[in-house]
Amino acid sequence: MVVIAALTNAVVAAVKIAVAAATGSAAMLAEGIHSIVDTIDELLLWVGLRRSARSPDETHPYGFGKELYFWSLVVAMVVFGVGGGASIVEGIVRLTHPTTVRPSAWSYVVLAAAGVMEGTSFYFSWRELRRRAKEQTLFRAIRTSKDPSVFTVFVEDASALVGLVVAFLGIFLSRELHAPAMDAVASIVIGALLAVAALLLVRESRDLLVGESASSERVRELCKIAAADRDVVAVKSPLTMQLGPDDVLVNLEITFGPWLTGDQIVAAIERLDRGIRTSFPSVKHLFIEAQLRR
């Protein structure tokens, strides 16, 4: 599906660039660049998903889950450098060397068709983001999401829809007001929009790549499960690290009651291990440090 989506975006990019060449519109060219960036990004995320799914080996005992975070960071840099930079430069060039945007109904047809496709993709990415982060604002859902394949697509789709509106206004106003500068300004705005989206993606990918903890809600639930055990008298806040979208490392320090024997402590640890892994299947690496209250 990712490859099909990438091919679709490549076709849309080619059509946008052809219309931009025919009309001389900088805003349409910026949209073509945006679609090229989307194509590259989808392929890079696909590479990240494939490589992050590899099994652990001797040099990577915790697996390759963080490779997805690396490729999502590369995606953000592509959006910032290629998408934002090229669109802004093109807009500035057209401002300093204005050209008249030639009329063509194809500009509006292409933008409308792109809006339908981007809107459909946006709806599905929005629905998935809401499913994973219920009762949160969209910005908070992006901040707490641990899956770049979800929040990256959502941010890109949202910026694409806004960019299409900006491109439409730039082309329309430049024709109606006989002001070529409006088309150039639209290209700059689209580039700035992509740059802002890229900076948001860089921030999220960086935090995950350097070792972000599991969500605070998950940490609290882990503590509740451990504290509810009959043999536990104290639970220290666990140390957690997100190794992948569905791969969490947990280091849990627990104090057991002084009445327990060695065999009973072992049994209690095994019971806690089963309970935590059952409640949270994403906890793939669980280390329990046992302390005995004296």
Structure, explained:
By secondary structure, this protein is of the alpha+beta class. It is built from 9 helices and 4 strands, in the order H-H-H-H-H-H-H-H-E-E-E-H-E. It has helices at 2-23, 26-52, 67-96, 105-132, 138-144, 148-176, 180-209, 216-227, 262-279, and strands at 232-235, 239-244, 247-256, 283-292. Strands 1, 2, 3 and 4 form a 4-stranded mixed β-sheet that branches. The longest helix has 30 residues, at 67-96. The termini are far apart. The mean pLDDT is 88.
Secondary-structure blueprint:
Blueprint lengths: L1 H22 L2 H27 L14 H30 L8 H28 L5 H7 L3 H29 L3 H30 L6 H12 L4 E4 L3 E6 L2 E10 L5 H18 L3 E10 L2
Helix pairs in contact: 1-2, 1-4, 2-3, 2-6, 2-7, 3-7, 4-6, 6-7
Strand count, sense and closure of the main sheet? 4 strands, mixed
* Beta-strand proportion: 5-15%
Query: From the alpha-carbon coordinates, what is the Rg to the nearest angstrom?
Result: 25 Å
Cα distance spanning the termini: 59 Å
Instruction: Tell me the helix content.
Output: 55-70%
H-E order: HHHHHHHHEEEHE
Mean pLDDT, nearest integer? 88
| Poorly predicted parts | none
Instruction: State the secondary-structure class.
Output: alpha+beta
User: Count of DSSP helices?
Assistant: 9
Beta strand count? 4
Produce a short descriptive summary.
The chain has 294 residues and is α+β, with helices and mostly antiparallel strands.
